[in-house]
Design brief:
heterodimer; A: 311 residues; alpha+beta; BirA Bifunctional Protein, domain 2; eight-stranded mixed β-sheet; three-stranded antiparallel β-sheet; 13 strands; 34% helix; globular; B: 187 residues; mainly beta; SH3 type barrels; OB fold (Dihydrolipoamide Acetyltransferase, E2P); six-stranded antiparallel β-sheet; five-stranded antiparallel β-sheet; 2% helix
Chain lengths: 311, 187
């Protein structure tokens, strides 16, 4: 049978992209191994996913498919592992769009003795190294936009991006409950356009598992990375106070209940281990999206072998 | 009743008592934030296009439209003429109201004409139509034939991307929901 008559042309024509995707993943792995990180594999099926207002886990028997490997990886930090990384599949219910697929690939890495600023630097180095390893220079093109990967990348606080691009100040947007809409409509499309952009210091209400800033308890040490308007990564200086973390989980579960969503059991063993966790920082980076940006692909469907609709 | 997670291209809903059709849709979610459903909606009466963003819990009334099977007869100016297969009554629909459907209409094709309060406002296409390629670059043998697209024009004037092995004069199947090439018709 010759190639020209293959029935599944959609799959056949992805071959070039899938080869490059494989190369990108190999280069990511090489980057971390070279830096003394330990590659780990933690269970995908867990009894208690992180309770977050807007992230829904897919049930699997009595348990759940993880939405991120963070809980287990942080328990490893607490047990004394200093630098760990993992590339794995994660599942989030109902997330399907041109940049979302319910089963996707996350790269997470964690480092003790580091804070979120340290991770920004490592993020820059990682993406620059991978880009160069697949034959790209510092100038890449994504959706017709030239983006310069030369370091340092742009760093703007969340407060500043609201001042710059939004009709409301950050606090006002939160009060009026339009924070997310403004992010999506007015802010995200303008981030990472000439250079990749880190936006950092999220309001405490959006802290997730980040620690609050010592000098300003209304802000959390959390950042997101954007390239060409696409959100690529989310990072924290990790919250290591078990009581504060428990309170936050309970609040998130209350929100979930108010929205009529399933409430998750608290990850008790994680909260217990948190007592031993050294000051650390951790980050989750969407591998599918990194492939999209590096290969100049606009739909996530084009960087995976199969979409759920094709199964 | 629909909820925001039912939104998809082609869905018809009522907003302020008027029927709207979703013409573009994307799911998005700012980091750790809530799910947002961004839509472009076309008012099926006026043709006006609006942008709306919805949240997970939002609900919609489906637009209930009458459907009648009609045959496409001919195009005159920007009016497309159809005939009711049962009553032989003829009606016309403007190019604007047809939207993407105009790319796939060939004479004698049966489609579902949509009526809102007796007024024809659009058509529902079959999911797949076969159209003949009238113009495309020839295939250079020896190409790997599975990597790249090339543009092709079909008999309605619509231009789309096809695999390199498609030749002029061939019949291809197009998915009318996405406007994309689906397969080549053998024979």
């Amino acid at each position: 049978m010759s190639n020209s008559v293959t029935k599944n042309w959609t799959l056949a024509r992805r071959e070039k992209t899938l080869r490059q995707r494989a190369k990108i993943i190999q280069e990511i792995r090489r980057f971390f191994v070279d830096r003394g990180y330990l590659e780990v594999e933690t269970p995908h099926r867990i009894p208690a996913p992180v309770p977050e207002s807007y992230i829904n886990a897919i049930p699997s028997g009595e348990w759940y498919l993880h939405t991120s490997p963070e809980i287990c990886m942080k328990r490893m930090l607490a047990a004394g592992y200093e630098k760990v990384f993992q590339i794995c599949r994660c599942w989030r219910e109902g997330e399907r769009g041109s940049q979302h697929i319910p089963e996707f690939t996350l790269l997470e890495w964690y480092r003790s003795g580091c804070d979120y600023i340290g991770l920004m630097e490592e993020c820059e180095e990682l993406i620059q190294t991978v880009a160069s390893a697949i034959g790209l220079g510092d100038q890449i093109v994504y959706r017709g936009q030239k983006i310069d990967l030369g370091r340092p990348w742009e760093r703007i606080s969340v407060k500043e991006v609201f001042e710059r691009y939004s009709p409301f100040a950050m606090g006002e947007a939160l009060e009026q409950d339009v924070f997310d809409e403004i992010m999506v409509r007015d802010i995200e499309p303008r981030l990472g356009i000439e250079k990749p952009t880190f936006i950092y210091d999220y309001p405490a209400a959006r802290r997730a598992l980040a620690r609050l800033k010592q000098e300003d308890r209304t802000l959390a040490e959390r950042f997101e990375l954007y390239i060409g308007g696409l959100e690529l990564a989310n990072a924290f200086s990790e919250l290591i106070d078990p009581e504060e973390q428990r309170e936050h989980f309970l609040r998130e579960n209350e929100n979930r209940q108010a929205m009529g969503k399933p409430v998750y059991p608290l990850p008790e063993k994680f909260l217990e281990d948190l007592e031993d966790m050294p000051p650390s920082a951790g980050i989750a980076l969407g591998v599918d999206r990194l492939v999209m940006v590096l290969l100049d692909v606009t739909s996530i469907d084009e960087v995976v072998a199969f979409t759920p609709e094709e199964l | 009743m629909y909820t925001a997670s039912d939104l998809r291209k082609g869905l018809k809903i009522v907003i302020d008592n008027e029927p709207y059709i979703v013409i573009a849709f994307d799911f998005t979610k700012p980091g750790k934030g809530q799910s947002l459903y961004r839509t472009k909606l076309r008012n099926m009466l006026t043709g006006m296009v609006i942008d709306r963003t919805y949240r997970e819990g939002d609900t919609f009334e489906p637009a209930s439209l009458e459907e009648r099977t009609m045959q496409f007869l001919y195009k005159e100016g920007d009016q497309y003429h159809f005939m009711d297969n049962e009553t032989f009554e003829q009606i016309a629909i403007s190019e604007e109201a047809l939207g993407d459907a105009k790319n796939f209409l060939t004479e004698n094709l049966n489609v579902e004409v949509l009526l809102f309060k007796e007024r024809p406002i659009g058509v529902e296409m079959p999911n797949f139509v076969n159209l003949r390629v009238i113009k495309t670059e020839p295939w250079v043998k020896g190409d790997t034939a599975k990597t790249d697209f090339k543009p092709a024009t079909v008999e309605t004037g619509y231009v789309l991307r096809v695999p390199p092995f498609i030749e002029e004069g061939e019949l291809i199947t197009i998915d009318t929901r996405t406007g994309e090439y689906s397969t080549r018709v053998k024979g």
